[in-house]
Batch of 3 targets.
Target 1
Amino acid sequence: MRLNIYSLVFLLNSYISGILIPILSLLLMEKGLSLSTLSITMGIYSLIVIVFELPSGIMSDVIGRKRTFCISLIASILSSLFILFGNHTSLVVIGIVFYGLSRAISSGSFDALFIDSYIENFGCERLNNITTRLSVLDSLGLSAGALSGGFLPVYSSQLLPSLGVYDLNLIIKIILSLIVFILVMTLVSESNNTQPKEDKTSLKEHIITSFSFVKNNKAVICIFISVLSTGYFLSSFETYWQPHFLSLIPYNDLSFLLGIMAFLYLGVVMIGSIISNKIINNYNPKKMYLLLRLILAIFIILTALQRNIILFSLCYICMYFIFGMANIPEGVILNSETPNRIRASILSVSSLTAQTGMLFGSIINSIGINIVKIPVIWGISAILIIISVLLTTKLFLSDHETHLTN
């Protein structure tokens, strides 16, 4: 029963996030941002996440995952309100700040609560199953939210002309966030099994323990290197895929395809996760991860080279399919290496690393977009992923030799 409740909350929360995916850049541009300031604004978002990511993960381990997650929902609601009623760039930026706070505070909190509960009931031997469940629920919620998020502006223009084109997306997001908040407060309980009360460590000791764990674990360092390049890759695509996609569409009245496109690429992430879970027991997770990351880089390059809308869509979807497959061995490696007592902190560090990559991407891309075209920016992200594969391969091999020596 608890597993089903947690799954519902996780699914709804992902759906809420998905509502803005197909239109976020366009929403911010409607509020007055240009392509250049768009990258800067998303850089502010990444900076906020970076600053608060690790403290929020530690807070989740110390004061509880449930409380931390509820705080993130409040930040999400405030974010939507500021952007919704923002009639000036400064208000929109404040909304983005709260958006970043929500993202930072939520990362690792409910995920860790879910994983801890699963391990408590089923043990660590089935970590790939909970990793897949989380990935599938996240992709399903995001894809469903993205699909509806793409159609909401159409309905809003026809039925609610007094609203902004994308305001209905924000209104639905606020309502659903309130519903999830109520569900969590009333139906979700948090056991204290991660660390007995009498053994609770101080904040300083917790930070030292987490830092020492990461420093001495080469497998986790490998994942973080890859996650850093993933952040850069996601920054370049999430910022520019919408305007680039519209530039390839021959007719302006086909803009609803943004929602369908977002639904498809998020859906294939889910499918890739499911397939990866089916076959991961037959392969070494580290070797599987490295191979999938290399294939991902190839599809990024292929996507950047396309000028035809159909070929672009096919390559784009295949790229995210491989990305979804790679998520499973990544999650298995990270969670199998991480002790329960610091899981939320390590997951937050992983998210922090991704956001750092996104911040660098936002800064570099805000400059690069004035010099080169969008496909070149995407090609650079592919090169960074290839470099990360080479670095992590070396570290994985070094870690393997150390284990053999011991």
Target 2
Amino acid sequence: MEPLQALTEIAYLLERERSSRYKSKAFRAAADAIAGLDDAALRDPALRRRKGIGDSTFAVIQQTLAGQVPDYLADLRAKTGGPGPSRLRAALRGDLHSHSEWSDGLTPIEAMVAAARSLGHEYLALTDHSPRLRVANGLSPERLRAQLEALPPFSGDGFTLLSGIEVDILEDGALDQEPPLLDELDVVVASAHSQLRMDAAPMTRRLVAAVSNPHVDVLGHVTGRLVEGSRGTRPPSQFDAAAVFAACAEHGVAVEINSRPERQDPPDELIGVALEAGCLFSIDSDAHAPGQLSLLDYGAERAERAGVPAERVVTTWPLERLRAWLTRER
């Protein structure tokens, strides 16, 4: 193992475990700081004074050069768990919900793409936030246009980067982005991020209006609940699930099975309602860092346990079939 590999793996595992973003960013900064250095420069004690190198990252570099698995990495590997392998996880070909540093993600687009490739993804949708979500540095129309112009041409060699957005569902069910811009995107994930405690009737109308919008492909983390993690817990939104999922089925909108362990959204009982309604599903990571793309393990395990058939999961489809669905008649 090379020092660069060790630092990158540590950052990846910290991201997967949703540790402090400052920890993972420190290890990624150290990896950037030593890129291109030879062994002599890495062994030089002056390396400790280089910007981006701290006590922990310096120790990782020196232990790796000594032929050891760094203590920090060995400890993380021992702690990192997750569900066992599942047939559904093996069937997944990609992910339709991810974020980069353009909004509230931790890394450039290129790092997300590299991680997706390493997981064997055939496609990844970049879905940064929309403008009203200022706390997440949501993209104004101007910034979204700039992102589309700047998107690296990742296509071919068995992998495709899809353009997209996680667009906020406003209180009246409208979408928080200009319709002509939404027309230009490959994937539109619509999610509610505010006013989650609305009464059931207006929340039902809000969600039905959103999934009836011809731009929407995926209904993201539908209840907005949080069940664990550093942000605390939050109860699920209340709405008529049968009505919302009937609208999803009618308009061909996929219900997201959000893979983040702190969300576990929809709850198991609502997955059952969506199954009964005839919905499609999208198992997504909602990754905000490269290591979180592997959280698909959790979503696939929940979906398989709930009895979701692989053929109704759009992220098991090959790219040609996925594109046909994304460009369907609305």
Target 3
Amino acid sequence: MIKRNLKQISDMIPVKNDITSFVEVEIIGVTIDSRKIEPGNLFIPFKGESSDGHKFVEESLKKGAGAALWQKDVPNPPTHLPILIVEDCLVALQELAREYRKQLPVKVVGITGSNGKTTTKDMTASLLSTTYKVQKTEGNYNNHIGLPLTVLGLDKDTEIAVLEMGMSGRGEIEFLTKLASPDAVVITNIGESHLLDLGSREGIAEAKLEILQGLKEGGLAVLHGDEPLLMERINKYKGNVNVLTFGRNNRNDFYPTEVIQLEQGNRFTINESSENFELPVLGTHNILNALAAMIIANHFDVPFTKMNEGLANVKLTNMRMELVEGSHGEKIINDAYNASPTSMTAAIELVSNLKGYQKIILVLGDMLELGPQEEQYHQQIGEGLNPGKIDLVFTYGKLAEHIAEGARSALGKHRVFSYSDKNELIKVLKQHVNNESLILVKASRGMKLEEIVTALQKK
């Protein structure tokens, strides 16, 4: 993490007060949460509509913070304490991260996409860790606040940083990539998330391709080559960039030549290596995420012979195709972190093809931010279900009622249950599970369907 004295910090960001008395104060790391102060931290308070972090500045310094920022328009700064008065605390955080990034010799990999970016980040970091000291975005620290905090958390001897870049609208990826200045980037795919803000998949593709604007000259761009919206635009791109593609078909630079689905993952081969790879992550769609990660690792000279080691040690962020067991011995795939039509279809395809279960049950909730066609997207999920492979469907939420409507046309009314009360859903669901059941739980994050998983696990 960043370690600088206040004189050095003041050389990195514009400071508006005299800090002569405090120039030798040492800063170790940065935090925006006064409850998580560690010795030497620089505390950065944010001024919001309903709360103001400035009221915790003095308390944070008493807890051991080395110094704090203070926004110029907030009255009564405690000038007897080590504070740095700045025009805007958020901008100062971002500029500090930008300058710190410039001072580090670290290589940066930037990852974005509609689906799979967190999983791809985790896989990329694991593969690179076989050879380098690697740090990655933790949790969902992938926005205009989280990414600067991640950058400022990088150690000076970190060799490669794997940074996830999220967005909800145009210009956000451009800002993040220009701050991080990546040496290589990945766009996992173009889905339907953020249709509400961007209007079309074409708009989403253009927003994701903003990641190229911060890519270093001659850097590597790894793209999903089966996606026409990406390939049409990259073929017209005027910048100096090396492009490698991954996908299911042999028109790509990297593609799988054989896939064998295992009970808790996949075994596969690829066109560029004679190795057999094993990925302990459910879902054949995750092989594509692994391919993107393998291209990045290969670019940084990690040999294919070491990649099984990296794949075996992948630690996925929680609630992403997480296989857990319920209190009756039922198996539950917890994929409750996010959902779009693309990712939900892939997850349903996965459980439809898993063998050895007496009963396959889907628990599906609302997919959010899909724009004016949201009801149609939900209904299509239900209509597309295979009655020979899916036994029961439970839905939760107003939009998910349209999944249930479509599912009734595919499975019949007696196999579909729709709820607006989560506790009622849990009560009925428990009556249908046993130790030979497999349950997929999936929805957008706002639906909090992990509460269903937790309830199923309770004795």
